[in-house]
Design brief:
The complex is a heterodimer. Chain A is an alpha/beta fold. Chain A has 2 domains: about 200 residues, NagB/RpiA/CoA transferase-like (Rossmann fold, 3-Layer(aba) Sandwich), CATH 3.40.50.10420; about 90 residues, no CATH class. In chain A, about 50% of the residues lie in helices and about 15% in strands. In chain A, the strands form 4 sheets. Chain A has a 6-stranded parallel sheet, with helices on both faces. Chain A has a 4-stranded mixed sheet with strand order 8-5-6-9, sandwiched between helices. In chain A, strands 10-11 form a two-stranded antiparallel sheet. By secondary structure, chain B is of the alpha/beta class. Chain B folds into 2 domains: about 110 residues; about 130 residues, Rossmann fold (3-Layer(aba) Sandwich), CATH 3.40.50. Helices cover about 50% and strands about 10% of the residues of chain B. In chain B, the strands form 2 sheets. In chain B, strands 2-1-3-4 form a 4-stranded parallel sheet. Chain B has a 4-stranded parallel sheet with strand order 6-5-7-8, with helices on both faces. The longest helix of chain B is centred in the N-terminal third of the chain and has 18 residues. Chain B is globular and about 50 Å long. The chains are: A alpha/beta, B alpha/beta. At the A-B interface, helix 14, helix 18 and helix 19 of A face helix 1, helix 3, helix 4, helix 8 and helix 9 of B.
Chain lengths: ~400, ~250
């Protein structure tokens, strides 16, 4: 992982000093700040505009609401396809569907590898298999397909691609996340490099699961957000694909009679998830400014050593720890690594939208101690300081 | 006058840093007093969630300091944590502007004012920016200026605001010693890439953690695994110790 992250850091460090990047950064900061301040208005607008465009929209307050809504659509399927989504990870979508007997096919290469490995979880928002070395991957693939495979990236890609395509042919429903959602236009933007979302979003029904924090005002704003995300996540100015989805597939070429589902889906359903985000906004909402680039974890000294055990589900590192407090409460926040952070501030230093994650963590530690969710050794140190003015035993 | 607030780590674990600092102050003819009854600056409590206890301890420490200092006094600290806390957190919490100076700042001033004469030493050193001094207090150049007066400074790739944390701070070393050690070992590797012989820093807590990592690293490395492209860092020093090496007729502490 250190090697992958070092390459990424070196590539990224040049481009983020570019004047145009700095201007974009300022623009996106304002866009995100506006969204957090005007969340209720944006939700109201996006519901109206999705419906106007023919996109079905479901507001889900909690994980269970999202899962129920989703299940009502997929319940008759035996297999569905999926692209990478932090929000799906947040609600435990794959585990839920597998439990119900619906097989989930991850289509992102890194995610698919991780899915086939019983021992690992994604380690970077756009490079989920960053923690695995070639040899590990070869072992995972050999075990799954019961074949000998060369430790060569193309060979690994080919075998995964072939298998995923076979499975995709059996799927009627594709589930994706969204990188940004434009409320005024009723549009969703997804970003990808592999082209997998093109395939997943063309199935008969396309379900998009997304947190309300991804809302912005316009498509132009949404493009700015995903462009900045791409720059900070990958060191490139654009990804291979930015898909803008504003409707299901349709045609009226025969006597102006409207037909749904030409090449693409006949239904597009957006599930907008709250799950503690409105609560987060009440407390300032700073952690929701996040555009999901993962810059903070690439630079984090702790994450670089212990990986995704520092963070909450697919929300990795310190910012994930902060978000977990709103989604899942203080105990979960503690378990995610609230006290694993040195408050060094590198994440804050490298955040394109200026989230002061180290401060947020410091404040959450106060809440945690108030609830007596503490590290025993810290309590002993506190007692020694108060008793004899020194943290040390002797 | 200079009031020297040593901090708990120097006071109890790394006494040679206060010895070195005192020697330097005496050599430069500086009038100073050691705050003998110093209490905790409160940093560790503030950063491990004990905000009420922190405030209580900090108020007590502030009271002691205010009883002791007059308006022309400066509070000298060796520890970057004490620096950030006394200078920034006390200001934020109690609205006081304590005149805090870090040893690296003072030494740099004394050398440039000609009050402290140092001779060049042949060593090549790299400087580790403590988070509390660097990112949290924007004090990057003074330690470097002092180092460059006495020997060759080579920068690590990750320096100044990009400096990798040593891994000890905010209760991580006490709660997760293994993780703190891993991070510090990585920082030692950063330093080795520069081919320097010494790591110099300006935080007693960083020193504790980096020294521990260096000890582990030396135990790990046997002769046949030494990478010829990398130097072997052989010591982690406080800036005061480095300066001491350049004072004639002084024996090196440590």
């Amino acid at each position: 992982m250190n090697r992958s992250f070092r390459t990424l850091r070196e590539r990224r460090d040049k481009i983020i000093e570019d004047e145009r990047t700095i201007q974009l950064q300022e623009r996106v900061k304002n866009i995100r700040a506006y969204s957090i301040k005007n969340m209720d208005l944006l939700i109201e607008k996006v519901v109206k505009n999705f419906e106007k465009n023919g996109v079905e929209v479901i507001l889900a307050e909690k994980s269970e609401d999202a899962l129920d809504a989703l299940y009502s659509i997929v319940k008759d399927e035996s297999i569905i396809a999926k692209s990478k989504s932090n929000t799906a990870g947040e609600i435990g979508l794959s585990e839920f569907l597998e439990d119900k007997g619906v097989q989930v096919v991850e289509t992102d290469l890194g995610d698919r590898i991780v899915q086939l490995d019983p021992d690992s979880n994604p380690s970077h928002p756009i490079g989920p298999a960053s923690h695995l070395r070639m040899d590990d991957i070869v072992k995972i693939i050999s075990n799954e397909f019961n074949i000998d495979i060369k430790p060569e990236p193309r060979a690994i890609l080919d075998i995964i691609k072939q298998d995923v395509l076979l499975k995709l042919a059996k799927c009627n429903i594709g589930i994706t996340g969204a990188n940004s959602v434009a409320a005024d236009d009723g549009s969703v933007i997804t970003v990808h490099n592999e082209g997998n979302i093109n395939l997943v979003s063309m199935l008969d029904i396309h379900i998009i699961i997304v947190g309300i924090d991804k809302l912005v005002e316009t498509i132009e704003d949404a493009v700015s957000v995903v462009k900045l995300e791409t720059i900070f996540a990958s060191g490139k100015t654009v990804p291979a694909y930015m898909n803008v989805i504003s409707s299901h597939s349709k045609t009226a070429d025969i006597e102006k009679i409207l037909l749904d589902g030409m090449y693409g889906p006949r239904r597009v359903v957006v599930i907008l998830l709250d799950n503690g985000r409105k609560q987060a906004i009440k407390k300032g909402g700073e952690c929701l400014l996040c555009i999901g680039c993962g810059s903070c974890i690439v630079t984090c000294p702790i994450y670089n050593e212990i990986g995704n055990e520092f963070g909450y589900k697919r929300y990795l590192g310190g910012r994930g720890v902060v978000l977990s407090s709103f989604i899942d409460g203080n105990q979960s926040c503690f378990d995610s690594g609230l006290f694993t952070c040195t408050l060094c501030g590198l994440c804050t230093n490298k955040c394109p939208v200026g989230i002061k994650t180290n401060n947020l963590i410091k404040n959450l530690r106060n809440d945690s101690v108030d609830l007596n969710i503490i590290i025993d050794e810290h309590k002993s140190i506190k007692d020694r300081i108060k008793k004899k003015g020194s943290p040390f035993k002797q | 006058m200079i009031i020297y607030f040593r901090g708990c780590v120097v006071r109890e674990k790394l006494k040679y840093i206060s010895d070195a600092t005192e020697t330097i102050l005496k050599r430069a003819g500086i009038d100073f007093t050691i705050l003998t009854n110093e209490t905790c600056c409160g940093s560790i409590l503030m950063r491990t969630g004990f905000k009420d206890d922190a405030k209580e301890v900090m108020k007590d420490t502030l009271k002691k300091l205010e009883e002791f200092i007059t308006k022309d006094d400066k509070i000298l600290v060796s520890c970057a944590g004490c620096y950030n806390t006394l200078k920034n957190d006390y200001n934020e919490l109690f609205g006081v502007n304590l005149d805090v100076i870090h040893t690296s700042e003072l030494i740099s001033q004394l050398i440039s004012d000609g009050k402290l004469l140092v001779k060049k030493i042949p060593n090549k050193v790299t400087y580790h920016d403590p988070c509390h001094l660097g990112r949290h207090s924007s004090l990057y150049e003074e330690p470097r200026e002092a180092i460059m007066e006495i020997c060759t400074l080579v920068e690590m790739d990750r320096n100044r605001e990009n400096s990798r944390c040593c891994g000890a701070g905010s209760g991580v070393r006490s709660a997760y010693p293994d993780t703190a050690l891993l991070v510090a070992q990585r920082r030692i590797e950063d330093a080795e890439d520069t081919k320097a012989e010494l790591i110099v820093t300006a935080c007693s807590f960083c020193i504790l953690n980096l020294q521990n990592a260096l000890k582990h690293r030396m135990n790990e490395l046997s002769d046949d695994t030494v990478d010829v492209n990398k130097s072997s860092i052989n010591k982690v020093l406080d800036i005061s110790e480095l300066i001491l090496m350049g004072l004639e007729d002084e024996k090196i502490g440590n």
